[in-house]
Every structure is written in C-alpha cells, then in structure tokens.
Amino acid sequence: MLFQFAPAIEAGINSGAYEIVRNTATGQLLGLVRDKATGQFVAHAVGLTTKVAGSSVNSLFAPAQLAMGGLQMAQTHLGFQKTYRMLDALHNSVVVLQSTIDLIGLGTVAGVLLSAVNLHQTLKLREDVKQLRLEVKDGFIDMKQALKDQ
Fold this sequence. Notes:
Layout: E1 2-4, H1 7-15, E2 18-22, E3 29-35, E4 41-44, E5 47-49, E6 51-52, E7 55-56, H2 58-132, E8 136-137, E9 140-141, H3 143-148
Antiparallel strand pairs: 1-5, 2-3, 3-4, 6-7, 8-9
C-alpha cells in the first residue's frame, strides 16, 4: 500500500525535495512527508492506493468504493439528522427555561411592590396612632383610651 498526497506534495516527492517518512525500526512508510532540506514535516497522506507491478488496481475496487461512499453519505446524513433533533430539543428546553426565568422575575417585582405598599401602609398606621396618642401593647390598641377622648 502506498499513500496518496495532494498534487503539489506529490510533485515535491517526484522532484526529490520531499521524502515520505519511514519507521526507523521496521522501515514501513508512515504517511507523512518531510522536507529533505529542513527536516520539517510538510503534509500528511490524504488517501491510500494499492499498486501491483507498477499499475494501480484502484480501478478494480472503484464500484465497491462508490457503494461505500454512498453508504458513508447516508450514514453521515442520519448522524446529522440525529444531531439536529438533539439540538432542536435543547433549543426547546432553553426557550422553556427563559420563559420560566421571566415569570420568576415578574413574581419578584410583584413581591417587591407588595412589600413597598405594606411598608407604606404600616408607616401610615403608625402616624395615625401617634395622632390619636394611643399606646400599642403587644400589638393591640387599648380601645378604652381611644374612646375616652371622643
């Protein structure tokens, strides 16, 4: 098996500027290309090809590769559909959470407003009690004293 590289990289390999990297222990090709002058990696393989006696036998496997390509496309499509359904469900959950947070915010504002009204009424009642010069004991007003002045 030989590796296929991009056309520009293949041209560099054919000209001798690049070399395919080999495993030092086994001598196997690794599918990476290195610049001979700098020693830096330039590219990686984009495919595989099988050669028999200098001629490629990829044409023998073309129908199978075509069928596999179609199967891979169908599999990818189904994967995207599943992902889309999951994203749609997540979107719906986020919408529900946002509306719930809005309702909680409205409830908080209503609670603050009711507290302000309650405080105002309490202060108003205190002022009325001061004007009548009444005493409040244990949360109750002595009605005898209030009616005595009337």
